[in-house]
Amino acid sequence: DCHGLSSFLIIANTGSSRKIALMGQREKSSNNHSSRKRGMGRKDQKGGRGVDRDSNKRNQSNDAANVKSASKKQSEFEHQNQFVRKEIDPETSKYFSEIANLFDSNGVDLEERSVICGNALEETRGREYEIATDYIISHVLQTLLEGCELDQLCSFLRNSASVFPAIAMDKSGSHVAESALKSLATHLENPDAYSVIEEALLSICKVVIVEKPLEMICNCHGSYVLRTLLSLCKGVSIETPELRGTKSSKALAKRLNLKTSHSDENNLEFSHQGFPDVFSYLLSGILSCSREDMKYLQVDQCSSLVLQTALGLMVKQEDELLEVIPLVLCCNNSANGKEEGVLIETDVAKDILESLKDNSFSHLMEVILEVAPESLYNELFHKVFKNSLYDLSLDRSANFVIQALISHAKNQEQMGLIWEELAPRLKDLLEQGKSGVVTFLLAASQRLQSHEHKCCEALADALCSKNETRISIAPRLLFLDNYFYSQDKSSWEWAPGAKMHLMGCLILQEIFKFSSELIQPYITSLTSMKPEYTVETAKDPSGARVIEAFLASNAASKQKRRLIIKLRGHFGELSLHKSGSFTVEKCFDACNVALREAIAAELLEVKPDLLKTTQGPFLLRKLDIDGYASRPEQWKSRQEAKQSTYNEFCSAFGSSKSNCPKNTFVSDAPEDASQDVEVENTRKESDHRPTSGVKRHREEHARDKNVSFAGGKGTKQKKSKTSEATTDKPATKKKPFLSEDMIGKNRHSNKLRI
């Protein structure tokens, strides 16, 4: 018994002043307890935390009618959600205060701590809501839930299931609910725990559905807890960026063709096999209860995030998505009077088109376009977007939907229709600050191998008039906003000292993925820049990526050396910067032995300073600078041998369609090794923003922000090997996803496919 282990269990009444004294004790002891210190950092402000924090600001961008409707509906939900909370008695406050002090003192071993946690959680029985929503005691409760045994945790969840929605919608209680779910996830490493955890999750889900989940979905705190619950049931890591409302760097890299492989369409991190039946039961219950209010849920920030998460978790489940997406888009699901094979009615398509300019709905539509099966994507493309692409591209919210539409185009036919609408207006898009649409148009053209030559020509025409030489294409893209915002474009010159434009640099990176025969004007423009301009480009984080993309292209080795020579005398300086070190490495790989020797000599001069940097030791080892310093002739012979071997390889196996750059030897690291980290910084500044509740960082504001591009280049992370679960069972008639009868099935009957 815990009472025999620690003296803190002796409780005494100290009067009504105990709460004030307890607050002082918590403030004093919080410095020593990491969990409570983290909890005390909760901000006491409206709108919640994380992605839910800026709800008021985001709603300002909606139409006046939508805002008025949303406010009225939200007030109605808040009125329904009023819950009378009893005050915590002084003895209970003292009890949990003593537990907090005991844990802070580190005077409890692991076995005693587990017993104390179990007994303390037992004290909450029947008072879970009051204790979990108390601002001070809730911090202690979080610590208890993180340190207790599985059976104690599941017992707490079952006992509190009836008030779980109310706890989740409370500012303090939501942190407790989140801690409980995260603690559950840590126990899933034990296969024997699945049945117990599934029972606890199912008890919570039943209450959430019965209690009309609309209130929880539209609550800024409840929305986040519900997203965590959905992710846990699906088997996805609770810390995944999609759950927190941000677009993962891998997803953005795939959209921009920055990764060499596009076979892995699923960017979710599956940490366990999940509970597919519980997930289906919870989601079908939520959707069934929300049919009448779906139009409101589409444009409400909190509920839109829940729908985004649910759809994102169903990626590749085409049959289920064909049922769920039409429901989310308010389509008539009844078979009567509905043409076979038609999912989007004409009147619904008009409503969707009008709603695309709403901030929250545009985020939702991005996810729909990302996960939609091809048949549904085709319907949306032709019924909603066709003949409206340019107008939507100019809108501050809808232009991101167009970017998603373009990046998920399925075939050359769709690319042709997109091209017909947007190609004549490329210059207008650039002038209006919507260069993100142009960037994704180039990426889709390269990915689908459609209209490649026309894209390159149209972009050049948008940047240079017919009577102008195209020698200035690259500088104008590097300073895209600076050029288009200048009053006299014909006399525009290089802007020394100005920050290079992120999207303009991304456009150049996309250009250099095309065949060299199609992009000769761009190659000539870049290699013809003055040496001081080339050096400035290499020093800029965004500009450095352009040089790396050019060196990785299939341009002639003579053209690459022409650019590299202009950087001579500056390789040591560049290597001291994180982004510049990658440029130096790419230059080394792309040049001949004589230039490699010159680079090695410059790095040797700055070796003491280079060793003090994060990237320095790796770069020195990769280029074998120590070998060059000790035995330069042998070092030179090794470089010549590598070069000769690679040339022979290209002669034997290379082809005109090969992506391998000529006259280079194989680098130890793939070209896209740091692209994931690069896009993490890209999304902060580009006019492609995350599909989330996070405030969009649009390009028209990016030029005013001093955000580094690709400042955190790193090494390629190992891809986890996954396999698709298969069964040998004969095919049976499949029950509709939205069926109400989802509880009695075996958890293993529908294995999760990864």
Automatic annotation (TrEMBL):
Residues 20-84, 664-754 are annotated as: Disordered. It holds the Pfam family PUF_NOP9. PROSITE patterns: PUM. One of its GO terms (molecular function) is RNA binding. Signal peptide: none annotated. Pumilio repeats lie at residues 383-420, 566-601. Keywords: Repeat, RNA-binding, Translation regulation. Residues 669-679 have a biased composition (Acidic residues). Residues 41-57, 73-84, 680-690, 697-706 have a biased composition (Basic and acidic residues). This is PUM-HD domain-containing protein. It comes from Brassica campestris.
